[in-house]
Amino acid sequence: MKHQRGMTFISMMILIVLGVSITLLGVKLAPSYIEFFSVKKVMSAMANDPAFPTMSPQEVRNSFDRRATIDYIDSVNGKDLDLSKENGQNVASIEYSKRIPLVLNISACLEFEASTSK
């Protein structure tokens, strides 16, 4: 008698459930990472602005808010920036976390940080 080769129905269902779960996880988490990359882009653009080193704290926050509006950043705003001076130059940094509900009472907590220092 020949032996059958291949997967059983149960193992195929397990693989399908696993694949769907990973895909749904990616779909739920991807927007947060895309927004974080936009925040990093805004921080980099601010650091490359020739006027940035001499801006007042309010001007830095306003600059961030204007750029964040253009890039559709909703999680953070200029008030969330931590401003400091290094070697007489402005340095802006931001740290935030985002909680994303996945299934029932299971959530993913993502922590992000970006800075204008190089």
Which key terms come to mind for this protein?
alpha+beta; 3 strands; 118 residues; three-stranded antiparallel β-sheet
Structure in words:
Helices cover 46% and strands 25% of the residues. The protein has helices spanning 9-48, 57-70; strands at 82-86, 89-103, 106-115. A hairpin with a 2-residue loop joins strand 1 (82-86) and strand 2. Helix 1 crosses helix 2 (57-70). The radius of gyration is 22 Å and the shape is elongated.
List the helices and strands and how they pair.
Elements: H1 9-48, H2 57-70, E1 82-86, E2 89-103, E3 106-115
Antiparallel strand pairs: 1-2, 2-3
Put the structure in a nutshell.
The radius of gyration is 22 Å and the shape is elongated. With 118 residues, the chain is an alpha+beta fold. The protein has helices at residues 9-48, 57-70; strands at residues 82-86, 89-103, 106-115.
Query: What is the H/E string?
Result: HHEEE
Mean pLDDT: 90
- Taken together, the total number of domains comes to 1
Strand order of the largest sheet: 1-2-3
Structural class: alpha+beta
- Count the E strands: 3
DSSP strand content: 25-35%
Largest sheet: 3 strands, antiparallel
- Shape field: elongated
Percent of residues in helices comes to: 40-55%
Helix count, DSSP H or I runs of 4 or more residues: 2
Low-confidence stretches: none
Radius of gyration: 22 Å
Distance between the termini: 69 Å
